[in-house]
Amino acid sequence: MNEKSHVIAAIVEHKPGVLYSVANMFRRRNFNIESIAVGPTEQSDLARMTITVNGDERTIEQVIKQLNKLIDVIKVSRLDPSNIVSREMALVKITAPGAKIRTDVINYANIFRARVVDVSPESLMVEITGDANKIDAFIASMKPFGVKEVARTGITALSRGVKSVKIEE
Amino acid sequence: MTKMSGAQAIVEALKRQKVEVIFGIVGGAVLPLYDVLYETPEIRHIMARHEQCAAHAADGYARASGRPGVCMATSGPGATNLVTGIANAYMDSAPIVAFTGQVNAFAVNSSYMIGRDAFQEADIIGITTPVTKCNFQPKRASEIPKTLKQAFHIATTGRPGPVLVDLPKNAQTETAEMKFRDSVRIRGYKPKIDPHPFQVKKAVELLLKSERPIILAGGGVIISNASPELLTIAELLMAPVTTPLMGKGCFPENHPLSLGNIGMHGTSASTKLILEADVLLAVGTRFSDRTTGKLDEFCPDAKIIHIDIDSAEIGKNVGVDVPIVADAKKTLTAIYQSLTSKLQKGKSSQWAKRVREVKEQARDEMSGGEKDLKPPRLMKELRKILPNDAIVATEVGQNQMWAALYFMSYKPRTFISSGGLGTMGFGFPASIGAKVACPDTPVVDIAGDGSFRMTEQELACSVIEKIPVTVIVLNNSVLGMVAQWQRLFYGRRYSAVDLGNVPDFAKLAKAYGAEGTRVGSLKEFSKAVKKAIKSEVTTVIDVPIGYEENVFPMIPAGAGLKGMIESEEEL
Ligand SMILES: Cc1ncc(C[n+]2csc(CCOP(=O)(O)OP(=O)(O)O)c2C)c(N)n1
After folding, report:
1. CATH topology assigned to domain B2-178
2. Which among A30, B42, B173, B376 has most CB atoms closer than 10 A?
3. Architecture, CATH, for domain B197-363
4. What are phi and psi of B100, to 5 degrees?
5. pLDDT, position B363
């Protein structure tokens, strides 16, 4: 069957142990998390998890049902990839000893609309935001210079328009 | 609002839940709680001799009564000893609430607290997350009333299951203003009870068109008390009923439409007829591998209607045509109401004839030899002796499959067995729990010698607490089911299965103050059982059987239903 990347948004109780039980469910059921981004929401007692999962249709259906089954998971939605804004942020540390190399890196960063956020005699740090493909492409283009370290947040996403994954009290 | 300690609040909450009995073992981290229990005669505490058995007993109590079973253990090893029992309850959807002690969540007088590896600290929340429906760790006493209300609510509603409440010592000792509420609201938990009318309509249409309907009735039918509804639908449709292990008893097995057990050790009638069916009505069952065998050979030609309260079970193992996420009783009622008005009688007479025919053929096989002390014979003899409502528990292995195949169950909640986890040692402590729930009903554990040895120390519990049950040890001096596999699939290379002839089970029973007897004939067996079920004290009946008995029919692991064999020669 065709495996695809799917984006799932889960609204969960904002309390200790919830991330553990979600991650544990994925491990136990043999599902693979590609990325997971967690943060508080506009309601202080709720957190939002944006999870990307690779799998066929049947797997994704099971993932959603199993997530829904967890007591601390309040609402699960599958986001339609053609109708969302999804972003990931990455910090990339690049080996950049001489002035020539620095200029090259900065030029690339500009093309990708990324920003240099730290400079040292030996390296540059670049902050880049975008969808996962853009970040992959940027990192690939930095490879020849020497990528020292990468920190990526994982995808976070919202669907377009007025629709929302909200909990009605 | 009343001011009380956390421990008092726990006991108050238990009383409000109408808990009458707790199975447990005390220890340092639950001392405050046990100190309150000391002055609470309304709640009976039954000391198990191993925490695993406390959990199994709570499980047996729950399955026999339909009420939540409660078990309790101290922190660390007490808590980890519970785990097998909790995992067992989880697999079989039994509502138990397990309480464990825990080291302080907050430093009290600078003593050690959670996370610093204090004496007898175990991360029981982490350990039990994958085997509980939910678990809680109230860190403050004031959280206790709400936590317990939620724990019992979650354990007993929807698809039931075990819930664990880990009780840091400070939450037991602190005092707080306690507010006990009758209502409970959990925003992430709303089991769907009522079936969708459109899905019911689709199911009814399929059933009306069906010429060869069959019903697969699982443990969910028992849990939702849907046996009467199941019976009326089966009779209306003239649909035969087959049960996986967990469903045994939900349909009277002496009914002409009963096919008995299905699966790896299903009756040949079940296996044959399910392959011929054109519509399968599956209720409260999860299509486990032990039930279906190889999936692409399971009901290839049938349309499947699947009713389950747990939406995650739908489509998990088997693709279905009409999914219905709802309570079994409600759904069967809705289906019945719609069916009765539409069905013309006598439509499925062809199928009814076929069902009779296949059952007739299977009769011989079901006689299982009339010789003395052959397990099938023993099971039938036992059925003759026991009243209809007697409760039979089993251990795991051949004993369990002989019981499933040859001991007919007539009523829901009268057959208690470890289906999902297959836990040797479950049956005896579960019998104790069942007997506590139903003190006036005879309770019999059908055991293998290997399994009984795993929890036999509970003889002490049953004797001291005056909970008389009957244990029938089908004693083949071998880990029989494993030996059967080695015999059939590993060229008789008997690796690590011989148990020897120890102990003398009759003497062992007597050493605990129980009754013990060894029987040598069918007559002696009957006599011993008749005496045992009337006895005031637990009785162990040691029944020597052959070392190389097989359980048949059998569907070898990895094979499909068509691969059923009925003797060693067929391999
Ligand atoms: C706790 C546990 N350990 C191991 C097994 C694997 N196992 C399944 S059946 C069986 C043999 C059971 O022997 P016995 O209780 O004597 O019953 P019999 O099959 O002889 O009736 C074993 C070892 C198990 N199911 N449970």
Report:
1. Rossmann fold (3.40.50)
2. B376
3. 3-Layer(aba) Sandwich (3.40)
4. -130, 145
5. 67
Q: Are strands B515-518 and B539-544 parallel, antiparallel or unpaired?
A: parallel
**Whole-model pTM above 0.90?**
yes
Domain boundaries, chain B: 2-178, 197-363, 368-570
Domains B197-363 and B368-570 belong to one CATH topology: yes
Extents of the domains making up chain A: 4-79, 85-156
The single residue of B72, B102, B152, B169 carrying the catalytic annotation is B169
ipTM of the assembly?
0.93
Q: Which CATH architecture has domain B368-570?
A: 3-Layer(aba) Sandwich (3.40)
* Pick among 3.30.70.1150, 3.20.20.100, 3.40.190.10, 3.10.580.10: CATH of A85-156: 3.30.70.1150
Query: Which of A17, A58, A74 lies at the smallest CB-CB distance from B188?
Result: A74
Between positions 4 and 43 of A, the ones with CB within 8 A of B are 12-13, 17, 20-21, 24-25, 28
User: Among residues of chain B, what percentage have pLDDT more than 70?
Assistant: 97
How far is Cα B246 from Cα B120, in angstroms, rounded to an integer?
A: 36
pLDDT tens string B246-304: 999 999 999 999 999 999 999 999 999 999 999 999 999 999 999 999 998 898 889 99
User: What fold does the segment set A4-79 form as a domain?
Assistant: Alpha-Beta Plaits (3.30.70)
Distance CA A9, CA A152 (A): 18
Hey, what amino acid is at B100?
A: T
pLDDT, tens only, A85-116? 999 999 999 999 988 999 999 999 999 999 99
Count of CB pairs separated by less than 8 Å, A with B: 38
Q: Is B514 left (phi over 0), alpha (psi -120 to 50) or beta?
A: beta
For residue range B392-404, list pLDDT tens digits in order: 999 999 999 999 9
Could you give the CA distance from residue B319 to residue B310 in angstroms, rounded to a whole number?
A: 15
Beta-strand ranges (E) seen in B297-368 are 303-308, 322-325
Digit-coded pLDDT (tens) for B499-512:
999 999 999 999 99
What is the C-alpha to C-alpha distance for residues B112 and B93, in angstroms, rounded to an integer? 36
Instruction: Write out residues 64-123 of A within 8 Å (CB-CB) of B.
Output: 65-66, 68-74
